[in-house]
Amino acid sequence: MSKHQRGFTLIELLIAITLMAVLAGLGWRGLDSLMRSRDITQVQVDKNAVIQTVLAQWQADLNAIQPLPGLNDAGVSWDGRTLRLSRRATAWRAEGGDAGLWVVAWTLRDQHWVRWQSPALQTRVAAQQAWGQAERWGQNPSTEDMAFETVLMPLDTWQLTYFRGNAWSNPLSSAEKPTEASPQTLQPDAIRLQIDLPASAGLRGRITLDWVRPNFSNTKT
Which among 16, 113, 174, 215 is placed 20 to 30 Å from 50, CA to CA? Predict the structure, then answer.
């Protein structure tokens, strides 16, 4: 006795194929949306990582401040536009000797935060020259000066406040001729940094970061 086997009709196959195509389209849209969301999240994470790295470099520079008596008694100088500082170098020389000092400067140019760093300095004369070069770089950089800079991240504005004499004040508030006891020749006990980020930085808004001198001890009441 033969058995009659019934197959799918052409209409049933077309319906099944259509349903599979619809499901595949819906699945692809979901996958595409997921991939786009992942890419956007990764871009945001990368931008935030850049900000954190830059602020870590800022803290590292301040933590390593090394005053140069007679040249840079406070170890740090702010002219309202550029912050210059002399700091201990962290890289050792090939023969194992102390690398000496770096002169470092930070400024805002073309809506970007920029950092400048001199080569390692071994002599007072070299440090004096680098100190002057950093000042020139902050005002009107030459091609030679810009060879030592690194463009860090987009930035709208930045502002510094010093903590000296048990109070926060404008670093330029004592503009008279410095004396031995003048705040201009004393390293601030703390520096407050305020930066305003544009939307392109990935985290629009203001960030406030306080740096405190490592050996500072506030015993005043």
Answer: 215
Q: How far apart are CA 199 and CA 96, in angstroms?
A: 45
Non-local CB neighbours of 109 within 8 Å, separated by 6+ positions: none
> Domain-by-domain residue ranges, the chain?
46-212
How far is C-alpha 39 from the geometric centre of its chain's CA atoms? Answer: 23
Segment 124-138 shows an average pLDDT of 94
Q: Per this entry, what is the length of the chain?
A: 221
Using CA atoms, how far apart are residues 90 and 62, in angstroms rounded to an integer? 13
Taking a C-beta distance cutoff of 8 angstroms, is the pair 211, 196 a contact?
no
Reported pTM: 0.76
Pure H helices in the chain:
10-63, 124-139, 143-146
In angstroms, the CA 52 to CA 25 distance is 41
